[in-house]
Specification:
Number of strands: 12
Distance between the termini: 57 Å
Strand order of the largest sheet: 1-2-3-4-6-8-11-10-9-12
Helix content: 10-25%
Radius of gyration: 19 Å
Shape: globular
Strand content: 25-35%
Largest sheet: 10 strands, mixed
């Protein structure tokens, strides 16, 4: 309520709720911060800040965003942030309502967001939402793309492939697929032996069956086969730990390895 005036010196702003059960909030439209560069909001609506404040942002992180926020509204506000270098969008929950998914995919998006400085894009949420916004975003300098999906079959990701193809720097020589109690984690690097992953696609399943994980991995591999065709080093691994650690191969006793390979 107090952030409704002019903050001419403010460069960094991080707001999160005191309690996890808090309802979503929104920044006041009268909030003015022309030099704001780093903005992190948890359980807030996508900020409808002034044009001046939006233009100065280089980092935007939105956590626990409501999934019913329309894609067109998101693209409109992103189009006002041409200097963004890091963008992180984390939705609060998956979308199980088929009608809502249909509306997301069918809603017209009238705006295109050109983000010429964006280097890092992280997205956690419904695949339907990501597929709706990716065709309307151009990121020529993108170097790191991280996508985490909630468990929501079926998965159809044609726009994810097209988005990667349009980004010249996202080319891969090494890839790894890890199956675990956490889900399926697919990572790819531009160079063999690199410790930095340029692409990460994670399916959070909440301890799904291994056969389902394999189906997910096969589907995303088929979807991204064009951009993964130059991979020369592939690692398959299994871990019974949900912790995201370095690859360690421990084959479960009930898995026949040749069919998996």
């Amino acid at each position: 309520m107090a952030l409704d005036g002019d903050f001419p010196m403010l460069e960094h702003l991080y707001i999160r709720p005191f309690e996890a059960s808090a309802t979503a909030q929104a920044l006041s439209k009268t909030f003015q911060a022309p030099h704001l560069r780093h903005l992190i909001l948890q359980k807030f609506a996508f900020p409808d800040v002034s044009v001046a404040a939006a233009a100065a942002l280089v980092m935007l992180s939105l956590k626990d965003l409501h999934p019913h926020f329309l894609p067109d509204e998101m693209i409109q506000r992103l189009s006002l942030m041409p200097h963004l270098e890091t963008l992180s969008i984390v939705f609060s929950s998956p979308i199980y309502d088929r009608e809502v998914v249909r509306q997301l995919l069918g809603a017209p998006i009238m705006t295109h967001a050109m983000l010429p400085s964006l280097c890092t894009f992280r997205f956690t949420g419904p695949c339907a939402y990501l597929e709706a916004i990716l065709p309307q975003i151009t990121t020529p300098r993108l170097e790191e793309l991280s996508v985490i999906f909630f468990k929501q079959p079926p998965l159809s990701l044609p726009h994810l492939l097209q988005f990667i193809v349009r980004t010249e720097d996202l080319r891969f020589g090494e890839a790894g697929i890890r199956f675990s109690s956490f889900g399926v984690d697919i990572r790819a690097s531009s160079q063999v032996g690199a410790r930095v992953y340029n692409l990460e696609v994670v399916f959070m399943g909440g301890q799904p069956e291994l056969d389902l994980q394999m189906a997910w991995a096969a589907q995303i591999s088929n979807t991204l086969s064009t951009v993964l065709s130059e991979v020369v080093d592939l690692t398959l691994s299994f871990s019974d730990s949900g912790v995201l650690v370095d690859y360690q191969y421990e084959a479960p006793d009930d898995v026949e390895l040749p069919p998996w390979r």
